[in-house]
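Prompt: I keep going back and forth on a fold encoding question. Comparing notes only helps if you start from a blank page. Show me how you would write down a chain together with its backbone fold. Please set it down just below, with no commentary around it:
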Amino acid sequence: MIRAATPADIPVIHALIRELAAYEKAADEARAAPEQLHEALFGPRPAVFAHLAVDDSTGETAGFALWFLTFSTWRGVHGIHLEDLYVRPAARGGGHGRALLTELARICVRRGYARLEWSVLDWNEPAIGFYQSLGARAQDEWRGYRLTDAALAALGSPDD
């Protein structure tokens, strides 16, 4: 079963984020606090959305998708950027990842969004194979860039 997250899901979402960070060999980089997640997902102006995959037989959370809206200037409509998709190892192969992506694709189709996009680490061959099996294609001509920490602060500091 796929369902939209509720405020009561913040602890499990936080745990899943920590599990994903450990899987991606970056546990120290996952610094989001539960309070920050609550504000982003359920505050006065939610900017992020989440869906949970719940195992039908056990009722346990098997995985999650955390996403936000983008906008295509070329298409003139919104899209979805999937920030995180994670299925717990014991639940993999049970269709939860596909079900989460299917739900996001349905949101796109229903709302007239042009794109569903995400990034994947180049070493994550199981995920790459899974995405390709769904018809997703790598955007090799585009390179992602990111400013964080000191570089972000230096560029964003007010002029003195």
